[in-house]
C-alpha cells in the first residue's frame, strides 16, 4: 500500500490490516460422523490429513455467516451455525499478518457432498472415532485440543459462544456479540 501524508507532522493514515480472520466448521451429523476435507494445496506434512473445512471470512462478513458459506463452498453441505467453541490467535502467519481463527460448531442441514475441485481434493462424512484417531491429530497439541473441546461440547460439558444481534448506542449499528448463558448454573450447557 503506497501512502503519503501531505501535511507536516506524523502521518495519521491507518496502517494496513494487521489481522486476517479464519473460520473452521466442526459439523457432526446424527450418525456421529464429522464432515471432513483433504485440501489440494497444503504443506507436504499435511498431505492426506482429513480435517474440518476452513477458510477466511470476507470483508464485512460475520463469523457465523462466513463459516456457513465456507462449508457450503468447499463441500456443498448446508449448515446451521450453533456456536463458536474456541478461537486461536497466532502471529506472523500469511503475509506476516496476525491470524484470528474461530472454531465453530454447526448442524448439517443436508447430507450430499459436492466437492469444490479448486481447493478441495476430497470430502466425506467420517466416523468421529476414526477422525479423532488420525496420527496427525493425536500428535499435534493444537489439533488435539481443538478436537477435545469439540468433543466436550458434544457431551454438553462445555459451552461455546452463541451469536446475539444487538444495537449499541455508541454507533447505532447492529453488531454480533458472541457469549454464552446457562439458565441453570448447575446444569450442563444446552444447545439452542
From TrEMBL:
Organism encoding this protein: Cuscuta campestris
Listed name of the protein: Nudix hydrolase domain-containing protein
UniProt key word Transport: no
Domain Nudix hydrolase, first and last residues per copy: 18-148
Alphabetized InterPro entries for the sequence: NUDIX_hydrolase-like_dom_sf, Nudix_hydrolase6-like, NUDIX_hydrolase_CS, NUDIX_hydrolase_dom
Gene3D superfamilies, sorted: Nucleoside Triphosphate Pyrophosphohydrolase
Keyword ATP-binding (UniProt): no
Transmembrane feature ranges: none
Alphabetized GO MF terms: ADP-ribose diphosphatase activity; NAD binding; NADH pyrophosphatase activity
Keyword annotations: Hydrolase
Amino acid at each position: 500500500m503506497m501512502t503519503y501524508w501531505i501535511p507536516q507532522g506524523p502521518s495519521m493514515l491507518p496502517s494496513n490490516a494487521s489481522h486476517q480472520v479464519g473460520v473452521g466448521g466442526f459439523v457432526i451429523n446424527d450418525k456421529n460422523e464429522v464432515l471432513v476435507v483433504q485440501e489440494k494445496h497444503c504443506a507436504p506434512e499435511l498431505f492426506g490429513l482429513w480435517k474440518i473445512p476452513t477458510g477466511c471470512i470476507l470483508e464485512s462478513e460475520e463469523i457465523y455467516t462466513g463459516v456457513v458459506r465456507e462449508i457450503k463452498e468447499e463441500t456443498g453441505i448446508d449448515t446451521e451455525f450453533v456456536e463458536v467453541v474456541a478461537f486461536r490467535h497466532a502471529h506472523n502467519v500469511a503475509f506476516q499478518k496476525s491470524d484470528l481463527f474461530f472454531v465453530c460448531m454447526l448442524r448439517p442441514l443436508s447430507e450430499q457432498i459436492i466437492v469444490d475441485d479448486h481447493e478441495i481434493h476430497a470430502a466425506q462424512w467420517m466416523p468421529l472415532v476414526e477422525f479423532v484417531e488420525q496420527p496427525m491429530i493425536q500428535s499435534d497439541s493444537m489439533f488435539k485440543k481443538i478436537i477435545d473441546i469439540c468433543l466436550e461440547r458434544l457431551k454438553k460439558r462445555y459451552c461455546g459462544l452463541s451469536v446475539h444481534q444487538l444495537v449499541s448506542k455508541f454507533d447505532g449499528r447492529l453488531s454480533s456479540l458472541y457469549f454464552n448463558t446457562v439458565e441453570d448454573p448447575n446444569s450442563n450447557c444446552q444447545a439452542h
